[in-house]
Amino acid sequence: GDRGGRGGRGGGGRGGRGGAGGRGGAKGGAKVIVEPHERCPGVFIGRGKEDVLLTLNTTPGESVYGEKRISVEKQGGDAGEKIEYRVWNPFRSKIAAAIIGGIDSIHIQPGTKLLYLGAASGTTVSHCADIVGPEGIVYAVEFSPRSGRDLVEMSKKRPNIVPIVEDARHPAKYRMLVGMVDTIFADVAQPNQAQIVAQNARFYLKTGGHAIISIKANCIDSTAPAQQVFANEVKLLKAENFKPLEQLTLEPYERDHAVVTAIYRPSKKQKTNE
């Protein structure tokens, strides 16, 4: 279940409009200062009683899965003009967990064209769509018809998401919908995930593009130690023209999960730079 609770509206009801931040404010409209994340363009940090990861809400006034929303006064705008952000929970999203875990780059930023394999109901997809913005696009592939329904519903309000209810093992099936992309993110929880990513990369990933792969150890081999499974996946990626860049585990948010980033068919220059 990717749906989670609806989450309260946060902070309303105290003295009429619930003080500052009323609707969906963190802890009843406590003062939150929002600043850009230093390593991840398009991601923000809300600094308050506790720091939270944020993305700019593409559909202000609405949550996708009951997540909290935070409004702040727009700097330099008209008085009372607000910008709304959505809280990105690392326990609900591998990419958010990787950012908090200190990953150097998620290779998803404003303008990115992203192919997202294993989109589920689209909770993380919605945050990726916030990040890539109107210039970017998220092609979201999900095989389960039930999750796919939620995904399709959510993307009706977000024109930069193309929902594709299809099997990621057969990338040719969606070639009429997907163009070349800068980045592939995969969280398909299949034992042959590396192969699935490679097949999609052959069709859609530009040379020098990036892959981010979420590896769940017991999904690939429940008998081997997690570290060995991760190392093996990296080896498989290397055999498919990927050069691994980073690997980090997602503790404490996920057990025996790692995220690996890699560059696809790097040029000589990229080989030395990255």
Uncertain regions spanning at least 5 consecutive residues? 1-28
The helix-strand sequence is: HEEEEEHEHEHEEHEHHEEH
Helicity, in percent? 10-25%
- Strand line-up across the major sheet: 8-7-6-9-10-12-11
Number of H- or I-type helical stretches: 8
Total beta strands: 12
Gyration radius from CA atoms, angstroms: 19 Å
Structural class: alpha/beta
Q: What is the average of the pLDDT values? A: 89
Shape: globular
What is the first-to-last residue Cα distance?
37 Å
Largest sheet properties: 7 strands, mixed
How would you concisely characterize the structure shown here?
With 274 residues, the protein is of the alpha/beta class.
Topology:
Blueprint: H1 15-18, E1 33-36, E2 44-47, E3 52-56, E4 69-73, E5 82-87, H2 94-100, E6 113-117, H3 123-132, E7 137-141, H4 145-155, E8 161-164, E9 181-186, H5 193-204, E10 205-216, H6 217-220, H7 226-239, E11 242-249, E12 257-264, H8 268-273
Parallel strand pairs: 6-7, 6-9, 7-8, 9-10
Antiparallel strand pairs: 1-2, 2-3, 3-5, 4-5, 10-12, 11-12
